[in-house]
Amino acid sequence: MTEPISDPFADRVSDPVVVGTDGSAGATRAVEWAAGHAVLQGLPLRVVHAVERLPYDGPRYPIPDSYDRLAPSGRQLLDHAERVARDRGPGLDVTTELAEGRPGRVLRDQAARASEVVLGSHGGGGFPGMLLGSVGNQVAGHVAVPVVVVRPEPPEAAAEIVAGFDCSEASGPALAYAFEEARLRGHRVRVVCAWEPPVPYGPVIGMDLDGMRRAAEDYARGELQPWRSRYADVKAELEMVRAHPVSALIEASSRAVLLVVGSHGRNAFTAAVLGSVSRAVLAHARCPVAVVRAR
Ligand SMILES: Nc1ncnc2c1ncn2[C@@H]1O[C@H](COP(=O)(O)OP(=O)(O)OP(=O)(O)O)[C@@H](O)[C@H]1O
Ligand SMILES: [Mg+2]
């Protein structure tokens, strides 16, 4: 892993936090979270609603006024979201935008003029038991800025931000986000580094598992040191967990206000937009998840 980049989010300092809403309860939680986060960062908030064409409005059966028919309820929904945001952050600079198109596409375009994109894990669609809506799947990992996916139920949180750390370069921007966030909120960072013996039958063939754990911990500590020095005012703790990273991070998420992960990890498979750990925690975490893409 290289030295920490000087300020990975420096060029985004004045772009607004963008939040997508479809008017559902899940999206309203996202609007509340985004408003709080915009206040914390001293950034404006832009609330976006995408109006999709009616399902039967296609080239063979065009419905010429499809968008005009849907736009008024879209505007109403945005007015409501704006009130919710203003309640959360009196004095907050809030704008709203009604856009025509598929929500995932619209929010990906919006990300080009955003400091981050906030979404609900669920919206008004979906099916019982669904863990992550299609918009989260279409946006997280696809855009350059961090994407925060907020869950409907508030976390039972300690004053703690969890960062997933696999000692790869891809963890760098995620660590930066976690430390910045902890500094802003006055919270501590728990850096969770999950490790597993390379083969399941290690003990059988006499592998020195304690030695292995110590080596992994020493290495992780060394890689973390530049971050501790740069954020000397932030309390940080390294936790080595002998488990699959998904289990370790989900467990840690039950005590956190926010879980931060990179879009890819050490085993990056370049064709995949999101690594398997990021994908799994987006679906299963118990608190909001920020996915931070490596630059
Ligand atoms: N039309 C939209 N405009 C803007 N943001 C949207 C829109 N629809 C959804 N979103 C955002 O995406 C989040 C998740 O909604 P999503 O549509 O992915 O899930 P869903 O409605 O439960 O299931 P489905 O994927 O079947 O639609 C919402 O909470 C909201 O933040
Ligand atoms: Mg939906």
Describe the protein's architecture and organization.
Helix 1 packs across helix 2 (66-88) and helix 7 (245-253) packs parallel to helix 8 (276-284). A 10-stranded mixed beta sheet has the order 3-2-1-4-5-10-9-6-7-8, with helices on both faces. It is built from 8 helices and 10 strands. Strand 9, helix 8 (276-284) and strand 10 form a beta-alpha-beta unit. The mean pLDDT is 89. The protein starts with 16 loop residues before the first strand and ends with a strand. It folds into 2 domains: 10-150, HUPs (Rossmann fold, 3-Layer(aba) Sandwich); 160-292, 3-Layer(aba) Sandwich (Rossmann fold), CATH 3.40.50. It is an alpha/beta fold. It is globular, with a radius of gyration of 20 Å. The protein is 37% helix and 19% strand. The structure holds adenosine-5'-triphosphate (ATP) and magnesium ion. Adenosine-5'-triphosphate is lined by residues 20-22, 24, 26-27, 30, 48-50, 103, 119-120, 122-126, 133-136.
